[in-house]
Amino acid sequence: MDNTFALRTHKEMKEVLMKPDAPGPDAHYYMIRGGSARGNITIWQSGEVGGEYIKAYGHYHIDDFIETYEVLLGEGVLLLQGRKTGADGTPLDDELEYAKAIFVKRGSVVAVPKYAGHLLVNTGSSWLITRDDSPVHLEKHQEASWPAHADYGPIKKMQGFAYYVVNNDGRPSFMKNPNYKNVPDLIIEHV
């Protein structure tokens, strides 16, 4: 296995799941990294863990760039959230300016705003496959799995995003994460 391939295990995902003790697949998703020039492919399993749809770990960008996702196969929800800042200008992990859910399907293209927290959720019955253009520096250790442009710490600290995407009688529904003290109403879009 070379440094362009990585996967996200169930053990790693427990940190951000609504129900961390629920059983799940050995691997939730797979990443093939080519960076901005060649593109990055991510493939999500279908299914659920404790009623929550299979999702990415999620992160905030620490670099100033816009990332674009294209859905190649399947359907899902892209969650976006922006943190409030404290008086000293540092981001507040448990308080948000906005929270957005964008329903996507094959052919959808979505630009992730600078510094936004984001993750994709597979709400379909087949694979969810995307291509993105985020920078990945493959000469760095573990860059394929945990890129240096991404901050995963706040998501781990809060045990996931402000909203969990759950199965409600076969349809996606949203549950607030109780670890956040300020969760604005969810803005819902379809592309």
What would you say this structure looks like, in words?
It is a single chain. This protein has 191 residues and is mainly beta. The chain is 7% helix and 47% strand. The chain is built from three helices and 16 strands. The protein has helices at residues 10-13, 35-38, 153-157; strands at residues 5-9, 27-32, 40-44, 48-49, 52-53, 59-61, 67-73, 75-85, 91-105, 109-112, 117-122, 128-132, 150-151, 163-168, 171-176, 186-190. The strands form four sheets. It has a six-stranded antiparallel sheet with strand order 1-2-3-12-7-10. Strand 8 and strand 9 form a beta hairpin. The longest helix is centred in the C-terminal third of the chain and has 5 residues, at 153-157.
